[in-house]
Amino acid sequence: MSWEKVELLRAASYLGAGISIGFGAIGAGIGEGIAAGEANHALSYRPRFSSEILTTMLVGQAIAESASIFALVIAMLLLFGSVESKPLVTVWAYIGAGLSMGISAIGSGIGTGMPVAGACKGIVRQPSAQSQITSLMLVGSGVAQSTSVYGFLIALLLLFKPLPDVTTFASAGALLGAGFAMGFGGIGPGIGEGIAAGYAVEGLARNPELTTVMTRTMLVGQAVAESTGIYSLVVSLLLILNV
Amino acid sequence: MKELGKIWTWVLDVGGYHLVFNVSTIIMTLIVMGFLILFAHLATKNKSLIPSTPQIIGELFVANFWKLTVDALGEDMAKTYFPLICALFMFLWCCNVMGIIPGLEEPTKDLNTPLGLGIMGFVIAHYAGIKTKGFKKYIKEYFEPIFFMMPLNVVGELAKVVSISFRLYGNIMGGSIIILVVSYLVYDVIIPPLLYGFFGLFVGTVQAFVFTMLTLVYISVQVR
């Protein structure tokens, strides 16, 4: 069986699309489930606030969804993008893009669900502080998403960067390695930032006067938790630039 | 499916420089700006105790964002930064939502708009930090906890710009690509309007708010 170049590229783009959305769907599913579970649990304490809890849960789930929406976008770009006139080394870039986006979406998906769960718990405890709780939840889950945003950035770079015509083992390894670095590097920080935001939102409901301090502490903590994700981003960028 | 992620550009060569204008982005941004100026004029034209509809909407924006800004920055600084925050949200909301009107496109779909706004937020936050803390203390923070962490601290700050702008860009561009592909797959029957409702109105509003709040808290972390 002889492989034409275009066919090989097509195969790689399909494989990358599958990896991207296959892994990318894991995290958001778990995260949204955590949020929905906590919302139901919270509802049983104070059924009177069911509409507030439902709104918070849906808004939060929409954010938790965006990690897998990024993965869906990368999958669609891989599925429907044209592969003619690309050099052969792009095969590895396509697989790398799928890995980078798909795996990094796992952590962010799970992480973004946690502040939403905390917010549902918090609204039951302190319904008068709903607006502060919701805005802290949005900030916290937005930040928890950043590693999947980095994964998205690396995937876009891998898809659209002009690549050399000559295929070497080194360039293939670098493209694949960039995908692995950002993908696996995104799992931990995503979940970690989610844990930080979840406790911050829950704590805010206990003591709404502390909004300012709590927001700052949460952000500083999240920035530290994110630093390992930034190491991955730096390494991925260096690998891509070296090709 | 060739038009995925394509932007209508206009190339101009002036004095040896190769200038590329994203025409649709510029036009759509101008439309949003015109709309906001018109809205501001209508909202403040006949100020009265019994408010008109534009005045109510304007007061709604101002009251809510004033509270959020005071929570984050305190009363004094809020007076300086509140107009920025409120205007940023209104601009971004119009930008994200205008895609549901046929013929119009979201300017935020083009990476240049979110990146420009992200860099603006970054510059303002660091300016505010230098102004309140003084240059020496501001620089010293980069060398914490140990001096050789400096490069990573700098990268961490720059990564904030990347994450804030790519989050908005990815959500809006992703939404429009998904709408395009799904419309193509289902021959424009039934599903696309629902998707416009979700991605245009719902995700657009949430992401505009997240972008604004993150800009606000980045300023608040710097001035601490």
Please give a structural write-up.
The complex is a heterodimer of chains A (243) and B (224). With 243 residues, chain A is mainly α. Chain A is 85% helix and 0% strand. Chain A has a single domain, classed as lithium bound rotor ring of v- atpase (Four Helix Bundle (Hemerythrin (Met), subunit A)). The longest helix of chain A has 41 residues, at 5-45. The model of chain A has no long low-confidence stretch (mean pLDDT 89). Chain B has one domain (9-223). Chain B has helices at residues 23-45, 53-73, 75-97, 112-133, 135-140, 150-185, 191-223, and strands spanning 9-14, 17-22. A two-stranded antiparallel ribbon of chain B has the order 1-2. In chain B, helix 4 (112-133) runs parallel beside helix 7 (191-223). At the A-B interface, helix 2, helix 4, helix 5 and helix 8 of A face helix 2, helix 6 and helix 7 of B.
Instruction: Say which CATH homologous superfamily of chain A is assigned.
Output: lithium bound rotor ring of v- atpase
Number of domains of chain A: 1
Assembly state here?
Answer: heterodimer
Give the beta-strand count of chain B: 2
Inertia-based shape of chain A: elongated
Provide the spatial order of strands within the biggest beta sheet of chain B.
1-2
Order of helices and strands of chain B: EEHHHHHHH
CATH topology of chain A: Four Helix Bundle (Hemerythrin (Met), subunit A)
What is the global morphology of chain B?
globular
Largest sheet of chain B: 2 strands, antiparallel
Number of helices of chain B: 7
Question: What's the Cα radius of gyration of chain A?
Answer: 20 Å
Helix/strand-derived category of chain A reads mainly alpha
Which chain pair shows the most residues in contact?
A-B, 39 and 38 residues
What's the Cα radius of gyration of chain B? 20 Å
Structural class of chain B: mainly alpha
Taken together, the total number of domains of chain B comes to 1
Using the coordinates above, name the CATH class of chain A: Mainly Alpha
Mean pLDDT of chain A: 89
Strand content of chain A: under 5%
* Terminal-residue CA separation of chain B: 49 Å
